[in-house]
Amino acid sequence: MRSGSIFVILVLSSISHIIAQEALYEPKEYAEAYARGTRLRTGMPGATYWQNHSNYKIVARFDPVAKVVSGHLNVTYYNQSPDTLKSIVFKLMQNVYKMGANRQMAVSEEIIHDGVEVKNIRCGTHDVGSTLNDIAPTVKRLKLQDALLPKSNITIELDFATPVPNGSGYRSGTIDSSSFFVAYWFPQIAVYDDVFGWDVEEYIGMTETYNDFSDYDVELTLPSHFNIWATGEHLNEKDIFGRKVLERIQKSKTSKEKIKILTEADFRKPDGREVTWKFSAAQVPDFAWGASDHYVWEGLSAKNPDEKNLCWVQSAYPPGAEYFDMVAEIAKTSVEILSDEFPGVPYPYFKHVTFRGTQGGAWNFRCWPITMWRMTRQTLFW
């Protein structure tokens, strides 16, 4: 018995020793970040954590017949990292529809296009022309003539032309002859982080990349009979809408009941003119927008634990879209549940728009982030 007991003790001791020697696998990139103090193993930022960011100024025009967004981008990129950067990486996400690009699933021929055109690049004081080096169809590298030092910034300007898919694409495209959802539409600077450096992950359709939190000032010019729903705050409502619509907008921002902001009686007819819409958004990861000349618009407010921080919940959809007259109230309830119960964190954004998209789906601007919601019967899914 004694020898058996000793044997058992030895075996258990050996197993305990083996288990103690084993640890969860830790990628070297994360181990190095822990050692530098930019991250903690608890998941919290470390004492030396940093994030880069940008200020985007975009002036663009959308041609709903040609289905092309053309514009000028001025972006100031702030290097908060301790590293000297010799290049800037851009994401041209709409190139996922370019002939020969990698995609996760088959797409119809009608949405294949020639890709995003970029020209007249100016980087700091240098004219670059149209030179962007390929990493992948959706990922481009701009070599800097003057390296970007730590704690400094650089301004890059360029002209671009982005085709909007002529049909239902990944989270963007043509909904009908005069309704569009436009996402991933401008050259956007990729993330440079403390773990992997530049994010050069190729966008192939379903798995989306992540972005820096940046500031956006955007001007969009469209024919005057179109309406736009977009990320951020609309700065020139008075240039677009008449007194009655403006009154409904203001009422809906604090109303507990759904307000019909735009009805069929408010639709404008083509008159040959164009109108510029102006938007501003601070510390957001992206900017997207939807446009239509025949979508109704509804809104109401959702309460947060902080009564002074109401969320303006809206829906935009074509008249007669099945079940969409319920969406604003469903979204309001969702925001309140998220704020009060699960996870119980006050909703951080001042507005939430659900825009009727393609293939029975809906795109949602929670003021900033873009997520897709699917509508099936009476149920709205995340």
Description of the structure:
The chain has 382 residues and is mostly beta strands. It has 3 domains: 35 residues; 162 residues, Immunoglobulin-like; 162 residues, no CATH class. It has 5 helices and 25 strands. Strands 5-4-8-2-1-14-18-16 form an 8-stranded mixed beta sheet. The chain has a 7-stranded mixed beta sheet with strand order 17-20-21-22-23-24-25, sandwiched between helices. The radius of gyration is 25 Å and the shape is globular. The termini are far apart.
Give a brief outline of the structure.
With 382 residues, the chain is mainly beta. Helices cover 15% and strands 40% of the residues.
**Main β-sheet, spatial strand arrangement:** 5-4-8-2-1-14-18-16
In the CATH hierarchy, the architecture of the largest domain is Sandwich
- Look at the helices and sheets and give the structural class: mainly beta
Rg for CA atoms: 25 Å
Distance between the termini: 62 Å
Number of domains: 3
Into which percentage range does the β-strand content fall? 35-45%
The percent range for helix content is 10-25%
The low-pLDDT segments are 366-382
Please summarize the sheet with the most strands: 8 strands, mixed
Average per-residue pLDDT, rounded, comes to 88
Shape: globular
Tally of helical segments: 5
By CATH, the topology of the largest domain is: Immunoglobulin-like
> What is the CATH class designation of the largest domain?
Mainly Beta
Tally the beta strands.
Answer: 25
SSE sequence, one letter per element: HHEEEEEEEEEEEEEEEEHHEEEEEHEEEE
